[in-house]
Amino acid sequence: MQPDTAVIFCAGLGERMRPLSLSTPKPLLPLAGQPILAHTMARLRDAGVEKVIANAFHLADQVESFFAQYDNVTVLREDRLLDTGGALAAMEAQGVLPDVPFYILNGDSYWVDGPSAALPRLAAAFDTAREDATLLLARSAGTIAETRYGDFMWSREGELRRRLEREVAPYLYSGIQIATKTLLHGAAVESFSMNRLWDEALAEGRLNAIIHDGVWLHMTTPADIERAEELLAAREVGNST
């Protein structure tokens, strides 16, 4: 089943994107002639998403103003920064999350689809009987940006796991996943990262992943945006349409 709901995290401070993020929320920074969020909304529409839930904190007026052009978006303002896990718990506490699977995206996510569109691939791979979430992972080697040490190890003969302290992982979280409310395990509304929820799901064998078959552009620093603009302008990795 293709999800008809998506959550977009838009509340973060974007500290590594400063000075750009001091006056503009990171998800609203321009890329290929549009705010990053505009590209995301177009991808969600193409995937059949009819309802979007977003949070806002840093420069929240700008986030709300952007989403005002859409009639299918609910924006929840945070009175304190809750991080990704806390934001999801707050949405559940307010009763806005569906009982069926939904997409979760970071507001700065930008990707170019490969042979198959990423969001439908996630939906097709997700098995609610066995999983609380399925992540879209990107290959570190093909990522356009500084990737540091990566996030996940995953041998084809083994299970998905976190990288250990001295390991360099071949996979990064792309900022895109599909999940159900069971991922929260009744978490309280407090500030915490989605990483905590993933670790709990990993411990129970209920976290899965697929590998992105296109290109993922890591939007962390101003240099990342400059590089992405150059690549997109040169049509080396396609474009957003």
TrEMBL record:
Residues of the MobA-like NTP transferase domain: 6-135
Superkingdom to which the source organism belongs: Bacteria
Entry GO MF terms: nucleotidyltransferase activity
Claim: Glycoprotein is one of the keywords in the record: no
Entry keywords, A to Z: Magnesium, Nucleotidyltransferase, Transferase
InterPro entries noted in UniProt: GlmU-like, MobA-like_NTP_Trfase, Nucleotide-diphossugar_trans
Gene3D superfamilies from the UniProt entry: Spore Coat Polysaccharide Biosynthesis Protein SpsA, Chain A (3.90.550.10)
Name the UniProt record assigns to this protein: Mannose-1-phosphate guanylyltransferase
Organism: Acidocella aminolytica 101 = DSM 11237
